[in-house]
Amino acid sequence: MAKNLTSANNLTPNPSPSGKGNWRETIAAPRIVALGAVAIYRAAVSPLIHAINGPACRYEPSCSVYARDAISQYGIVRGGAMALWRIARCNPLSGHGFDPVRGRGHAKEVE
């Protein structure tokens, strides 16, 4: 009788009976949320700041683009830490110029 009720309501069985789901989707969800937050900041908040203060970015690409790239390449934990470190370096006593996210496997340049 339970089988007839299930088929009558068009309920499908859980593809993952253990309840764990697809691990790739579980890992990707926080990254997607963080990238969405950066996108909202870039679309809504950043234009207001630029309208009030004018462009004041010390680095190229801007910190929000750096955050987006770092999170998409390295994930929310390491990429988020890289983005926070970049924002902390954005002050008058720090450097300026071109500072992209380094790709995986690239060694730091020796000056």
Helix count? 4
- In N-to-C order, the SSE pattern is HHEHHE
Q: What share of the residues lie within helices?
A: 55-70%
Overall shape:
flat
List low-pLDDT spans. none
The strand line-up of the biggest sheet is 1-2
Indicate the mean pLDDT: 81
Number of strands: 2
Query: What characterizes the major β-sheet?
Result: 2 strands, parallel
Beta-strand percentage range: under 5%
Explained architecture:
The protein is mainly α. The chain has a domain of 72 residues. The chain contains four helices and two strands. A two-stranded parallel ribbon has the order 1-2. The longest helix is centred in the middle third of the chain and has 31 residues. The chain starts with a helix and ends in a 13-residue tail after the last strand.
Question: In terms of topology, how is this protein built?
Answer:
Elements: H1 2-8, H2 23-53, E1 59-60, H3 63-74, H4 76-89, E2 97-98
Parallel strand pairs: 1-2
Helix pairs in contact: 2-3, 3-4
Give structural attributes.
111 residues; mainly alpha; 4 helices; 2 strands
What's this entry about, in short?
Helices cover 58% and strands 4% of the residues. It is mostly helical.
